[in-house]
Amino acid sequence: MTARAFRPPPAPDNREGAPRRVGVELEFAGIAPADAARAVAAVLDATPRETGPGAWEVDGPGGTWEIYRDSALRKTERGRMLVDLAASVIPVEAVAPPLPLAELPRVEAAATALREAGASGTHDGALLGLGMHLNVEARSTEARDLVPVLRAYALIEDSLRAADPIDLARRALPFVDPFPSAFATAAAAGADWDFTAMADAYLDHNPTRNRGLDVLPILKLVDAARVEAALGSEIKIGARPAWHYRLPDCRIDEPDWSVAREWGRWLLVEEVADRPELLEALAAARLEFDDQLLALPGEWRKRSDAILEDAGLSPSARMAEGSPEEAA
């Protein structure tokens, strides 16, 4: 992959002046954790080490990769036996450490190595609902940096999903449900949100991690008490200053799929957030749309598509920039 494949966001550095980092999680089937660890280690010129039943680590230049089948089973006394028995139904995960954008081609190389080792993705017919998550460091945890991104995602989510619909198995599962329509409306009216107003609106409409964009890690980092008061303490949330973007499929066995391609889809969110006039045009259109007495299915997506196209932004075009044939 070339550097062009991972085009930088409008704000490539955080507010402290350091390059923003991106963590990547890949879910796949078809090969055992040991084989996956060896494939990743070959890319990183490192030696894999087993840390438990079905669990491996590989130290790379930017930190430690984790490769495992299931964290819960790994902690049980009979974990190794259960991991072996569950091999056909529990996917393997390869979790890269947060890396500067310039180092993401290394993740792409690891994905290629995993494919060559026999890893299969969500279209393989296993009905496992395999996904790829991006943990994109926020520019800061201040409202001025969070509110525009969250509003942008809520307003163009239908367009993002339509650009490359997720696998049927993942749609049937609740893990990447879209934001409720009422939250998109709230976001459209949320130009004046401060952090508290944003958090309250989000928690009111999204009391779950099961969204295409999970904002709970950021909210918990800034105001854990508010999150716990809304959701209770049963939901496990790792606090971190990152957007947990869960929408993409992992199609690791398909030659025309790439990590960079999905990065391009996320990039559109940040580009909209960085253009206040465009963001407010989408917001105004959404509020006008909501005033209709009757709306046909898919109508808001068509409207948001048209606004994005007029602004020179297209989800499918952004994704194509990161496709293997474009980046070759």
Question: Please, could you describe this protein's structure?
Answer:
By secondary structure, the protein is of the alpha+beta class. It has a domain at 139-237 and 274-328. It has helices at 33-44, 71-74, 79-85, 104-116, 143-163, 168-172, 181-188, 195-205, 216-222, 224-231, 259-273, 276-290, 299-310, 315-321, 324-327; strands at 21-28, 49-52, 55-60, 63-68, 92-95, 99-100, 132-137, 213-214, 242-245. Strands 1, 2, 3, 4, 5, 6, 7, 8 and 9 form a 9-stranded antiparallel β-sheet that branches. Helix 5 crosses helix 13 (299-310), helix 11 (259-273) packs across helix 14 and helix 12 (276-290) runs antiparallel to helix 13 (299-310). The longest helix has 21 residues, at 143-163. The mean pLDDT is 91.
Counting DSSP H or I runs of 4 or more residues, the number of helices is 15
| Poorly predicted runs of 5 or more residues | none
**Residues in helix, %:** 40-55%
Strand composition percent: 5-15%
Query: Which geometry do the CA atoms define?
Result: globular
Main β-sheet: number of strands, strand sense, barrel status? 9 strands, antiparallel
Class from secondary-structure proportions: alpha+beta
**What is the H/E order?**
EHEEEHHEEHEHHHHEHHEHHHHH
DSSP strand tally: 9
- The end-to-end span amounts to 6 Å
Alpha-carbon Rg, integer: 20 Å
Rounded average pLDDT: 91
Describe the protein's topology.
Layout: E1 21-28, H1 33-44, E2 49-52, E3 55-60, E4 63-68, H2 71-74, H3 79-85, E5 92-95, E6 99-100, H4 104-116, E7 132-137, H5 143-163, H6 168-172, H7 181-188, H8 195-205, E8 213-214, H9 216-222, H10 224-231, E9 242-245, H11 259-273, H12 276-290, H13 299-310, H14 315-321, H15 324-327
Antiparallel strand pairs: 1-5, 1-6, 1-7, 2-3, 3-4, 4-5, 7-9, 8-9
InterPro entries: Amidoligase_2
Keywords: Ligase
GO molecular function: ligase activity
